[in-house]
Design brief:
Strand content: under 5%
Structural class: mainly alpha
Number of strands: 0
Order of helices and strands: HHHHH
Oligomer: single chain
Radius of gyration: 22 Å
Distance between the termini: 43 Å
Shape: elongated
Largest sheet: none
Length: about 150
């Protein structure tokens, strides 16, 4: 066996041991972002409970001091999360859109909680409910494999 053949053998062994991207790897990384979003949703749920108890100012404070920073953490985590597969990139894009839409909805939710307009409050709560429904959709999609 010549040196060229021996070198080619080592090269092919190295290529075989290379780790390839997998949906499972992407799922694990993106699950951490989904968990961070669930933390945001928990704070928003607490704000909703406080509002139903007639404690709207406290509810607004929870959104500002708890939910908003938690959302920032979730977005930062997503910014540092790499998805290596097409499936993972699609889920990552869904999470990015969801977190962006959550961020866009926060100020109007706080304004509605601090205000006295029941229609504005209802619309803000319905917007938050729609975002939670989307989050559940992303969570469901993350449980499914791209290829059966």
């Amino acid at each position: 066996m010549g040196l060229a053949a021996l070198g080619a053998g080592f090269f092919s062994l190295g290529a075989c041991s290379k780790s390839y991207a997998s949906e499972d790897d992407d799922r694990a990384r993106l699950s951490a972002v989904l968990a961070a979003d669930a933390k945001v949703d928990g704070f928003l749920g607490e704000a909703d409970r406080l509002d139903r108890q007639g404690r709207s100012a406290d509810a607004a404070k929870v959104v500002e001091t708890e939910a908003t920073p938690a959302l920032g953490e979730a977005k930062s985590l997503l910014d540092h999360t790499v998805a290596d597969t097409a499936w993972g990139r699609d889920r990552r894009d869904e999470l990015a859109k969801l977190l962006g839409d959550r961020a866009a909805a926060m100020p109007s939710y706080v304004t509605a909680l601090r205000g006295s307009d029941p229609t504005a409050k209802l619309e803000a709560v319905m917007a938050q409910a729609a975002l939670e429904k989307r989050a559940l959709g992303v969570a469901t999609a993350m449980k499914k494999k791209a290829t059966p």
